[in-house]
Design goal:
about 260 residues, alpha/beta, Rossmann fold, 12 helices, globular
Length: about 260
């Protein structure tokens, strides 16, 4: 499905986990960096009105579907895509890095969370090496001088994969800048993924995730912050459904011709 942003049209360009891990493994083999963004409804509320965020998305090499609404909308538009939440990608991406002997870095969240997440990852992924951790100070500007310093330190650490846990749009903006300042690093923007691993945030039980109710669980954990966010997400759904149906009809007509 094609989504509108302040920087032009955007679409998911990696549809399956197998395709994603194959592409990442190829980048590791060649020693090339990359950027990975996980598109969700919250992003889709921001992208049409936040030019910097939209420009950062244009620099993402891999865009996957994070959130069942994005999967459903894509299928409604005639595209089959798999659900790939950022939190679910951390361990398999670490496994790919370990197989390729690529060192890993963690950036974002807090020092205690990064330490705990690193301990969990190294315990669960044999051969994984975490060589760099950095928790930016409060008010971190992904387009400012502190970001430049963080990216230079990351490049010097030898890491070939960096998990960004800054939240949107900061993590995507930093990843886009990293393609220039740390070109040999693969950046994966995974939101609260490290906090979940560290036990600093509680993720919804599996049964709630299977029923597409993770949003409800998260809203209960932090209602003041998340209820308005989810209200904005629900508000854009009808327009996206109409757009998906139009794209599906256009594709069907094109196929007939």
């Amino acid at each position: 499905m094609i989504f509108d942003t302040a920087a032009g049209p955007l679409r998911i360009n990696v549809h399956t986990r197998a395709a994603l891990f194959r592409a990442v493994a190829e980048r590791f083999t060649r020693g090339e960096g990359f950027t990975l963004a996980t598109l969700n409804l919250d992003h889709l509320t921001k992208l049409p009105r936040d030019a910097a965020f939209a420009e950062a998305y244009t620099a993402q090499n891999f865009i996957v579907a994070d959130g069942r609404p994005v999967v459903w909308l894509s299928r409604l538009a005639g595209e089959e895509v798999e659900l790939m939440p950022g939190s679910d990608l951390v361990l398999p991406l670490c496994a790919e890095a370990a197989r390729a002997q690529v060192p890993v870095a963690l950036l974002g969240s807090s020092d205690p969370a990064l330490k705990a997440a690193a301990d969990v990852l190294e315990a669960r992924v044999p051969g994984l090496r975490i060589v760099h951790r950095h928790a930016p100070a409060f008010g971190f500007d992904p387009a400012g001088p502190d970001a430049d310093a963080a990216l230079r330190a990351l490049a010097e650490s030898g890491a070939g994969l960096c998990f960004l846990a800054l939240g949107a749009p900061k993590q995507e903006v930093l990843a886009a800048r990293g393609r220039t300042l740390a070109p040999h690093v693969g950046f994966a923007s995974i939101g609260a993924g490290l906090d979940f691993l560290a036990g600093h945030q509680s993720r919804a039980p599996r049964w709630m995730r299977d029923l597409a109710l993770e949003w409800f669980w998260r809203a209960l954990q932090s209602p003041r912050r998340l209820v308005p966010r989810y209200a904005r997400c629900f508000a854009i759904l009808p327009g996206l459904v109409v757009r998906a149906l139009r794209q599906r009809r256009h594709t069907q007509v094109s196929d007939i011709r």
